[in-house]
Structures are given as structure tokens and as C-alpha cells.
């Protein structure tokens, strides 16, 4: 794949839109991580539940958003290509502001699950914001922009648990939901008034069928490979996240600082992502996203070996930090490949399909981590996750060599 070096100008208002959308993605990521780590504790406060009931309700509340998101994303993608991505950002932030706020008013577990299901059906701010700014960005800067946008959600995910934990300890588990709902409403207002999209609506009757647009792509298999990459990379994150604190407890027992140590291990990849994302983005613009993706997948696969073998939480945190440094370019590289190979009029639909695969990856990863750790052991989760990344690397390599040939 050749890297576009044409000196295309930035559209008017691009920098303001980029800042607003970055902040919107940051708030979305922060709001998620402010509330989700404590949702099981919130559910536990709403009734007398057995341990089995608590685990089932917590699992349903976690998975509900991703399941509904995977189902409805293609519909929103079609609408994005006819109405624009800004409208989709407004739809997502506006409805999420309401559903998250109302979740804080919940009186029972099923109300939380229903609101999470509804939230997933209307979510998608980060993906639509990414698609919007991708469509506005000259190709010569696509890698840097995709990587920098990625830092927004990662930064939010780092700040969220600390802020959510402090607020929950001080004021109760409902307050983070109220604050997140208010921040999402501010995101709605900022996006409405400060983001300018240079989008020419496509009439529904003039919109080319997706099959026809796919035929215009030189190597359609690489697009499918990017969908699979998004699913597997997301699954590799989610397979580990739910069991990290339990794995740390398995290593050190009920240590006085168990929560703090587990928090350090959980946050380590995000910190690595944050530190290397911008640099990786510049490298991507220079050498191309496919090389960055293959190198990142190779290193990530190898790093799961020492993670599975270690018996120290601090070494686990160290390896996960290095994983964060190496994997900072994985999802941005996949998204960049999509922006370079896909006709712009299909951006909304392609990014919505990608979002569906990402949501499916979250569900698959969480189930993988829970089932494998329950049936076998915590290290086995790392072995299997590394194996899936190796398979992903082979898929990308096969399709890339065919493209080059």
C-alpha cells in the first residue's frame, strides 16, 4: 500500500473540530470507566442477591451494551452515509446523556440492564467521531490523527476508574452516573455548536449499494482482515480485563493493597498506549499502517508468553505496560487502512461494521476470559489470547502478501 504524501490542505475549522471530538471521546471513555468497574457493587446495593445472581446480573449489565451495539451499528452506518457523521455523534452523546443519568436512578438490577441495553443501541460516539475526523483529514496525516484520537479513549479509561472510585467512596455509586450523564450532555452541546463537518448528503435513492462499493476496493480481503483484526484485538483486551484483579489476588492473596496493585496492573497497558500513540502515528504515516500493524501483532503475541509464566504482579504490570507501548498502533492501523482503501461515501457504513466487530470482540473476549479461567486457570487465558493474536497476524500477513504481489 502506498502512503499518500500529497500536500492536501486541512478544511476550515478542522483543528477546532479535532479538539472538540478528542475531548468528546475522552469524556466517553472516562464516563464508561467511571461507572462500569463499580456496576456489580451498585447492583449489590439494590437487593439481597446470592453470589450467583450477582455474577449473572453483572455479566448481563456488562454484555448488554455490546450486544445491542453490534446489532444496530450497521443501521446507524447507513444513516451516517446519508445524513453525516456529526448527526450520529449528536445522536450518541444526547441519548447516552439520558440513559447514563437514568441508570443512576435505577431501583433494581433489571432496570440497569435495560438502560445499558438502550445505551448500547444508541452509542457510538467514539467511532463516529473517528469517522468524521477521518473524512476531514488529508491522507498524509491519517495515521497520526487515528492514533491521537485513540489516546482520547485510553486517557479517559485511565482517569475514569480513579475518579469513579473516589466519587463512589465519598458519595455513593449513583453519583458517577449522574456526573457522566451531565458530561455527555456537555459533549452534545460542544459537538452541536463547535464541530463543522464538510459533508455532502447522499440521497437515499442515489446511495450506491454496499456490494457495489466493495467492488471498487482493490483488495477487499484486507478490509475483511481489518474487521477480524478489530474483533481479535478487542477480544484480547477484554479477555484479560475482567480477570486481572482475580489473577493478582491468586498471586499475592488478600494483600492489604490488593486493590491498588490490581489497579496498577489493569492501568499499565493504557499508560503504555498513551505514551507511544503519537510516536506510532507518525511512524505509521511514514512507513504505512500495514507494517505497523504486523510489527505490533508480532510483539503483542510474544509478550503474552511471559505474562502467562510470571508469578509476580509487578512483572505482570511491566509486561502489560510494554504491551501497551507495542499495541498502541493496532486499532488505529486497522482504522487507517479502512480510511485509505474505502471510498469516502462508504465511510459511515464501513466504520459501523467495524464497530459491530469491536462490540462482538468485547463480548467474545469477556466470555473467553471468564470461561477459560473458570474451567482451567488464569494463565491459560493469556496462552489462548496470545494464540488468537498469532492467528490474527497470519491472516493479515496472508492478505498483505497477496496485495503486494
Automatic annotation (TrEMBL):
Domain of life: Bacteria
PROSITE patterns xrefs: MFS
Transmembrane segments: 20-42, 54-76, 96-118, 144-163, 175-195, 216-238, 258-280, 292-308, 314-338, 382-399
Membrane topology: Multi-pass membrane protein
Keyword Transmembrane: yes
Xref: Gene3D superfamilies: MFS general substrate transporter like domains (1.20.1250.20)
Subcellular location: Cell membrane
Domain Major facilitator superfamily (MFS) profile: 17-404
UniProt keyword list: Cell membrane, Membrane, Transmembrane, Transmembrane helix, Transport
Name used for this protein in its record: MFS transporter
Organism: Limosilactobacillus alvi
Amino acid at each position: 500500500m502506498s502512503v499518500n504524501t500529497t500536500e492536501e490542505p486541512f478544511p476550515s475549522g478542522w483543528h477546532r473540530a479535532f479538539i472538540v471530538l478528542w475531548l468528546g471521546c475522552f469524556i466517553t471513555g472516562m464516563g464508561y470507566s467511571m461507572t462500569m468497574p463499580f456496576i456489580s457493587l451498585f447492583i449489590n446495593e439494590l437487593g439481597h442477591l446470592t453470589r450467583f445472581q450477582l455474577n449473572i446480573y453483572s455479566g448481563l449489565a456488562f454484555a448488554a451494551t455490546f450486544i445491542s451495539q453490534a446489532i444496530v451499528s450497521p443501521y446507524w452506518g447507513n444513516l451516517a452515509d446519508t445524513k453525516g457523521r456529526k448527526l450520529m455523534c449528536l445522536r450518541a452523546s444526547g441519548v447516552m446523556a439520558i440513559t447514563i443519568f437514568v441508570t443512576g436512578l435505577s431501583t433494581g438490577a433489571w432496570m440497569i440492564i435495560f438502560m445499558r441495553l438502550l445505551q448500547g443501541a444508541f452509542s457510538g460516539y467514539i467511532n463516529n467521531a473517528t469517522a468524521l475526523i477521518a473524512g476531514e483529514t488529508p491522507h498524509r496525516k491519517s495515521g497520526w490523527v487515528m492514533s491521537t484520537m485513540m489516546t482520547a479513549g485510553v486517557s479517559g479509561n485511565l482517569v475514569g476508574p480513579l475518579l469513579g472510585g473516589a466519587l463512589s467512596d465519598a458519595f455513593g455509586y449513583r453519583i458517577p452516573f449522574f456526573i457522566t450523564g451531565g458530561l455527555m450532555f456537555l459533549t452534545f452541546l460542544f459537538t452541536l455548536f463547535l464541530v463543522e463537518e464538510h459533508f455532502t448528503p447522499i440521497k437515499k435513492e442515489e446511495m450506491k449499494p454496499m456490494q457495489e462499493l466493495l467492488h471498487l476496493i482493490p483488495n477487499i480481503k484486507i478490509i475483511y482482515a481489518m474487521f477480524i483484526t478489530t474483533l481479535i484485538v478487542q477480544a484480547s483486551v477484554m479477555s484479560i480485563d475482567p480477570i486481572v484483579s482475580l489473577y493478582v489476588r491468586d498471586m499475592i492473596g488478600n494483600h492489604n493493597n490488593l486493590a491498588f496493585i490490581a489497579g496498577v496492573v489493569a492501568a499499565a497497558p493504557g499508560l503504555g498506549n498513551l505514551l507511544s500513540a503519537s510516536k506510532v502515528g507518525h511512524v505509521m504515516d511514514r512507513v504505512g499502517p500495514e507494517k505497523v500493524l504486523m510489527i505490533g501483532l508480532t510483539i503483542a503475541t510474544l509478550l503474552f508468553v511471559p505474562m502467562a509464566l510470571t508469578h509476580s504482579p509487578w512483572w505482570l504490570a511491566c509486561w502489560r505496560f510494554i504491551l501497551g507501548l507495542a499495541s498502541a498502533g493496532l486499532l488505529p492501523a486497522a482504522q487507517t487502512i479502512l480510511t485509505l482503501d474505502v471510498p469516502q461515501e462508504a465511510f459511515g457504513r464501513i466504520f459501523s461494521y467495524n464497530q459491530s466487530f469491536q462490540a462482538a470482540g468485547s463480548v467474545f473476549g469477556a466470555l473467553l476470559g471468564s470461561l477459560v479461567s473458570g474451567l482451567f486457570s488464569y494463565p491459560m487465558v493469556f496462552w489462548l489470547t496470545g494464540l488468537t493474536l498469532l492467528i490474527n497476524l497470519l491472516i493479515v500477513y496472508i492478505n498483505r502478501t497477496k496485495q503486494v504481489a
